[in-house]
Amino acid sequence: xxxxxxxIYLINAIFLTIHEIESxxxxxxxxxxxxxGITGFLILHFPVLFLFLYGLVLVSQQTFExxxxxxxxxxxxxxxxxxxxxFIKIKKREEFTMPISVFILLxxxxxxxxxxxxxxxxxxxxx
Length: 127
Description:
This protein is mainly alpha-helical.
């Protein structure tokens, strides 16, 4: 089951990274009213990407910390889907409405849900 989590984590991290690339295209920092423009947006991603890549290493080593980071990545994906659907459906924003954008967001949701369930299962087994 841990090997399956490894692959789900990796694919989900790729989906979220692709989404963040698209976020730069749409200047997401403006949508969320973040200061610093593209520079601040990119700087913010250094520790985030480090944490998520390091988490993959820890998941492969089957550590408790890896499972916690896996849950964090899972929650991040669920949050990304939810907040973008809010902006699309409620705020009527047009960013992230291209078919590929919706595919990435839906894929992230499905992968994040699966990753969260598997991670919780492995955490319960570990305790």
